């Protein structure tokens, strides 16, 4: 006969078998649901989600910022080169003209001598030179006498040249303050034809320097000189300052912190007496609760 322990063991085995068979379907169902969820997640990840309106606007702003930064950087570099180019050709002659202090009213001049020379040894000075940075190989040298009688008065009442007492005689006559320039504004051949050759001895208007009376020029305009000086100083510098300012605001962390710093006053950073009393009362209540 079997013992009681064997009977109990067999009964426990029989009773445990149905539970094991019942748990297998539930496990298979959970695995299937997990696989289905994973497949659905993979499908959802594989599909491209269309960008929203905010994302499109942000992308457009990033592109606009990039191209604007590129243009501003190029503008800043070109402004520096333009200003350096304008210094010897516009700024310095304009300042020299202001320092010379020409009389704005043209006076009467007469060319006394015209010499056309070639070679650097013979062209120690020139009334007109095309190009301010190169040495003169061919030059026109004109000497003039001038009187401070205004040319419009001379034109109304002509005088005998032999009876005139000239204020300055045989002084150098220049096309402008620097005595040089670039076509088409300065054409030395036309300048020589206008004042030299067959026109020697004919009265014409000219401008003398009140600071340096021996300097006489053919062309002078206070308004044009001042306009060129202001434009050559303002335009390149303003473009450079605006470009660098915008780029610094966009890309410099220090500038961004300075522009977005807290508007609170230094004294407001510390608690007031009322806040201190409230904090003390809260701390005392917490101690009493403990």
UniProtKB/TrEMBL annotation:
Residues 8-43 have a biased composition (Polar residues). One of its GO terms (molecular function) is sodium channel regulator activity. GO terms for biological process: regulation of sodium ion transport. Coiled coil: none annotated. It comes from the Eukaryota. InterPro entries: TipE (IPR031578). Keywords: Membrane, Transmembrane, Transmembrane helix. It holds the Pfam family TipE. Residues 1-51 are annotated as: Disordered. The chain crosses the membrane at residues 66-91, 229-251. GO terms for cellular component: plasma membrane. This is Protein tipE. It comes from Anopheles quadriannulatus. The lineage of its organism: Eukaryota, Metazoa, Ecdysozoa, Arthropoda, Hexapoda.
């Amino acid at each position: 006969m079997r013992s009681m322990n064997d009977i109990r063991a067999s009964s426990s085995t029989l009773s445990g078998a149905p539970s094991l068979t019942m748990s297998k379907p539930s496990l298979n169902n959970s695995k299937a649901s997990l696989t289905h969820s994973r497949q659905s997640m993979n499908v959802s990840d594989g599909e491209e989600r269309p960008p929203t309106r905010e994302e499109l606007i942000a992308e457009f702003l990033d592109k606009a910022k990039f191209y604007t930064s590129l243009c501003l950087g190029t503008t800043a570099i070109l402004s520096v080169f333009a200003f350096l180019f304008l210094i010897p050709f516009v700024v310095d002659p304009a300042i020299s003209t202001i320092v010379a202090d020409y009389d704005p009213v043209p006076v009467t001049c007469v060319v006394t001598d015209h010499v056309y020379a070639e070679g650097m040894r013979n062209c120690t000075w020139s009334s007109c030179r095309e190009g301010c940075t190169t040495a003169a190989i061919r030059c026109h040298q004109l000497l003039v006498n001038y009187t401070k009688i205004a040319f419009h008065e001379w034109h109304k009442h002509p005088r005998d040249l032999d009876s005139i007492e000239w204020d300055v005689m045989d002084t150098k006559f220049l096309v402008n303050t620097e005595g040089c320039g670039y076509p088409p504004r300065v054409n030395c051949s036309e300048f020589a034809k206008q004042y030299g050759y067959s026109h020697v001895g004919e009265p014409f208007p000219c401008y003398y320097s009140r600071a340096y009376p021996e300097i006489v020029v053919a062309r002078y305009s206070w308004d044009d000189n001042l306009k060129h000086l202001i434009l050559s100083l303002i335009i390149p510098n303003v473009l450079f300052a605006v470009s660098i300012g915008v780029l610094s605001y966009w890309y410099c962390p220090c500038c961004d912190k300075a522009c977005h710093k807290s508007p609170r006053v230094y004294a407001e950073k510390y608690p007031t007496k009322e806040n201190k009393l409230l904090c003390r009362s809260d701390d005392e209540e917490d101690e009493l609760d403990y």
